[in-house]
Amino acid sequence: MTTTATPAATPSSITLRRPDDWHLHLRDGAALAAVLPHTARQFARAIVMPNLKPPVTTTALAADYRERILAALPAGMSFEPLMTLYLTDNTTPDEIRRAKASGFVHAVKLYPAGATTNSDAGVTDLVRCDATLEAMQEVGMPLCVHGEVADPSVDVFDREAVFIDRHFIPLRQRFPGLKVIFEHITTRDAAQYVAEADDLVAATITPQHLLYNRNAIFTGGVRPHWYCLPILKRETHRQALVAAATSGNRKFFLGTDSAPHARGAKEAACGCAGCYSALHAVELYATAFEQAGALDKLEPFASEFGADFYGLPRNEGSLTLVREPFEVPASVAYDRDQLVPLAAGTVLNWHVV
Ligand code: DOR
Ligand code: ZN
Predict the structure, then answer these.
(1) What is the C-alpha separation between 263 and 25, in angstroms, rounded?
(2) Does the CA dihedral 244-249-251-252 come out positive or negative?
(3) Which residues line ligand 1 (CB under 6 A)?
(4) β strands within the chain, DSSP E
(5) Binding site annotation covers 351?
(6) DSSP designation for 329
(7) 293 Cβ neighbours under 8 A, 6+ residues apart
(8) What residues does substrate bind to (predicted)?
(9) Is the dihedral of CA 8, 13, 16, 21 positive or negative?
(10) Virtual torsion, Cα 192, 194, 198, 201, nearest 10 deg
């Protein structure tokens, strides 16, 4: 990383190796066309989530989706979609072998059925997938985990911590050689679990979970644009996540979980879960790392550790941010609707050149 120093010793610009987003929702059709340029402006690659309607459950569907993503990329932009398969109770070991052989499927995603947006086709009981998980372990196909129990009797703020004991630990005992990414961790419990696990376990962390605690959802009224799953937690958890992200531990890396939903679907009696951060993701992370006095740890978190964990080369290009006030737009166009970005109307310290 290169920095340009101001007299106050805070750099006035930072240049990073071009980063990747290790957890992203791109959607499809006109929505895909609206959000893809935002990601491609900053990131060279992204792990693309498969929770479309219907979900991306096969290598053939992932190939088609990949083509639609590449077709939606504006001329002159470069971006490589890293595809994932949506794990169901019926995913076969053969499908895993096809996915591995494709070269473009880089992970399989576990959504516990009912845990979040478009998870209805997800896994009802992980032991039903054991033959498939065995094949993943054998061929070296990582499992991305939405680590929340879907059990309605468990408090929504406890669902991640409970998942560790009920599912994560047993999964790792059954498949100690399986590479697992604990996606979008939100608790001290998860950060600690990952830090203490062996090197086959890693975690992604979103900008919203680094910058905000659960008060943000209820500041002066209900704030639907701060509602995502797993939900924001209390301040002690946010602090633990900041400590993990800025620790220099290679198990923690960038994954925005940018999840676009039209304004009307968020500002509703039953609003959708998801924060839109693709527009300004690196600016958000830089603001969080600066607040922690750890800007020097941003580059490995954003541009090195994820690629290393997935066994992919680090990118060659670079991305420069300047330290200048950047007011997050109130909204951006989205299909025939609008998207409200995370922290709309607030001022961030950093801006991508
Ligand atoms: O907040 C979320 N939104 N969490 C998820 O797990 C899914 C995502 C989406 O697809 O909208
Ligand atoms: Zn997600």
Answers:
(1) 16
(2) positive
(3) 25, 51, 116-117, 146, 228-229, 259, 273-274
(4) 2-5, 11-17, 21-24, 45-48, 80-86, 105-110, 143-145, 180-182, 201-205, 252-254, 318-327, 332-334, 337-339, 347-352
(5) no
(6) P
(7) none
(8) 25-27, 51, 146, 229, 261, 273
(9) positive
(10) 180
Residue type, position 250, single letter? R
Domain positions in the chain: 19-311
The number of residues in the chain equals 353
3-state class (DSSP) for residue 132:
helix
| pTM (predicted TM-score) | 0.97
Instruction: Name the DSSP letter for residue 280.
Output: G
Backbone angles phi, psi at 149, to 5 degrees: -75, 150
Assigned CATH class of 19-311? alpha beta
Residues in contact with 343: Cβ distance below 8 Å, sequence separation at least 6, in sequence order = 211, 280, 284, 328
| CB contact at 8 A, 271 and 343 | no
Q: Indicate the pairing of strand 318-327 with strand 252-254.
A: unpaired
Mean pLDDT, each 10-residue run in order, the chain (353 residues):
59 97 98 98 98 97 98 97 97 98 98 86 94 98 97 97 97 98 98 98 98 98 98 98 98 98 97 98 98 97 98 98 97 95 96 94
The 3-state DSSP composition of the chain as helix, strand, coil percent (nearest 5) reads: 40, 20, 40
Residue 233: phi, psi to the nearest 5? Answer: -110, -175
pLDDT value, residue 7: 43
Closest listed ligand to the CA of 117: 1
> Ligand 1: which of 206, 209, 228 to mutate, judged by most atoms within 8 Å of the beta carbon?
228
Of residues 13, 10, 101, 5, the one with CA closest to residue 282: 13
Q: Whose CA is nearest to atom 2 of ligand 1?
A: 274
